[in-house]
Design a protein that fits this description.
Low-confidence stretches: 1-6, 8-40
Radius of gyration: 17 Å
Strand content: under 5%
Order of helices and strands: HHHHHHHHH
Oligomer: single chain
Distance between the termini: 14 Å
Mean pLDDT: 80
């Protein structure tokens, strides 16, 4: 990822005030997979004017309905993917006990993040913070699904059917395309892009929460 790329070791470095940093770290203390007590910090993307060319590009990215079937150029890459899938399945078991549902979710996240040129580990952290991996989550401002998509996106770049935002692949595709759009707008600055995704651009609480949650999903084969 170009620009100010995210790295796990930078998870809380942007909080400089000791008091605020202590409060944030206290809130994140339960973010491990064992406790699953990370507070959901879902906000909402802000509706902003889109140039026609941007709207067209985003609509095309959403409309391409290729299924999440991974393709590999060699055996080593396929084995790395299978190791990642097995490790993530174990970590997610408590939140998604049904094996098939869990595998389909992980396959979709893996596929859509790579399709959008995103860090899979970061996106899993974002989903944990946004919805706690709940498919039908709705925030106080109306954001929906795993990646908490605001309904206006369905009108701007989708077919207008807000109900489809609860469909797993549709929701994750929207989220990944939107995050990619924000990264491009912020010239690769992950911290600012995450803030824009949450509707809190420039504030540290949400990006740092995502960085901390992403540590739960770090893996050498990601």
């Amino acid at each position: 990822m170009s620009g100010d790329a995210w790295r796990p070791e930078r998870a809380v470095e942007t909080v400089t005030d000791p008091g605020r940093r202590g409060l944030l770290l206290g809130a994140l203390a339960g973010s491990t997979l064992g406790g699953w007590s990370l507070p959901v910090l879902a906000g909402g993307q802000l509706e902003e004017p889109l140039a026609d060319s941007v709207r067209t590009a985003l609509s095309a990215a959403i409309a391409n309905s290729a299924p999440p079937v991974p393709e590999f150029t060699d055996t080593d890459k396929r084995l790395a993917y299978l190791r990642w899938l097995a490790a993530m399945s174990d970590r997610l078991h408590r939140r998604k006990p049904d094996f098939q549902t869990r595998i389909e979710f992980l396959q979709t996240v893996w596929y859509e993040t790579r399709r959008a040129g995103l860090d899979t580990t970061l996106v899993l952290g974002l989903i944990q913070v946004e919805s706690a991996f709940r498919k039908f989550a709705i925030s106080r401002v109306g954001a929906r699904g795993y990646m908490q998509i605001m309904p206006f996106w369905s009108r701007l770049i989708g077919d207008g059917d807000v109900g489809r935002l609860f469909h797993m692949q549709t929701n994750i595709r929207f989220g990944c395309v939107i995050l990619r759009h924000y990264l491009d707008r912020e010239r690769g600055d992950t911290f600012m892009a995450l803030g824009r995704y949450n509707g809190s651009r420039g504030r540290s609480e949400y990006p740092n929460a995502v960085y901390a949650a992403a540590r739960n999903w770090a893996h050498s084969d990601a």
